[in-house]
Amino acid sequence: MKVAAIQMVSVSKPDTNIQTAERLLRQAKSQGAELAVLPEYWSIMGLRDTDKVNFAEPSSGGSLQSFLAQMARELQMTIIGGTIPLQSEDSQKIYNACLVYDANGMQIARYDKIHLFGFQNGEESYQESNTIKEGDDIVSFESAIGKIGLGVCYDLRFPELFRNMGPCSLLVLPAAFTYTTGQAHWEILLRARAIENQCYVLASAQGGIHDSGRRTWGHSMLIDPWGKVITCLDEGEGLVIADLDLDAMLKIRSNLPALKHRRFGC
Ligand SMILES: NC(=O)CC(=O)C(=O)O
């Protein structure tokens, strides 16, 4: 299966971001992608956190959900819709939700970001819990290539989340790592999750300077189950696309059966 990760530098106008997402999804399709993932907050990343709340849709439907469903149906592609803001029971807070659509445009999974980012170093300060309500449920779904597990951005730092999914063929991570933390940790963490779970990791990122002044790290990439980076972007919009080789994954698991050697409770 050919998979693509789309990278964006989302601006403060959601309509412009939707046009960019559509263009890049069409490009992924034209290059043969059967599955594509958008980055975290692809429609609203350019806005300040407090303004993002105003763009939240009810989970029963909205224009972002219609867009994702229609693109999946028209392009006949599984679309992992990055994250979009969905309303929660608390009017001050939204879910940072990752919705998955199959090639018929049916929503087949929803994951709400569980771990909420907090960081301050004197120059930058982020506190996602001010405006985001955390999810509670670990989510994976079945596909033609086996189980696909979902995480969002900061979740990458919590290996137990992915371990608790059971063996997946592919972990998918829409993200918007900051420039500062991404430069230091992004690739190392992604490769660690691929190596310890002996599976592919597909990460789509925001990468550049946004209208809000925030700078993100980019470096969307696909990593194989041996921990090798197969393809990677730098900053700026674009996409990475590559084939998954499940036989190679099974060979790695057979040569080095670390998943079977786990000792639960130790
Ligand atoms: N932006 C995030 O959610 C996470 C991040 O930047 C980090 O973990 O570093």
TrEMBL record:
UniProt cross-references to SUPFAM superfamilies, sorted A to Z: Carbon-nitrogen hydrolase
Taxonomic superkingdom: Bacteria
Keywords recorded for this protein, A-Z: Hydrolase
GO MF annotation: an example: hydrolase activity, acting on carbon-nitrogen (but not peptide) bonds, in linear amides
InterPro entries, per the entry: C-N_Hydrolase, C-N_Hydrolase_sf, Nit1/2_C-N_Hydrolase
Residue ranges constituting the CN hydrolase domain according to the UniProt record: 1-246
Name this protein carries in UniProt: Carbon-nitrogen hydrolase family protein
Organism phylogeny: Bacteria, Pseudomonadati, Pseudomonadota, Betaproteobacteria, Burkholderiales
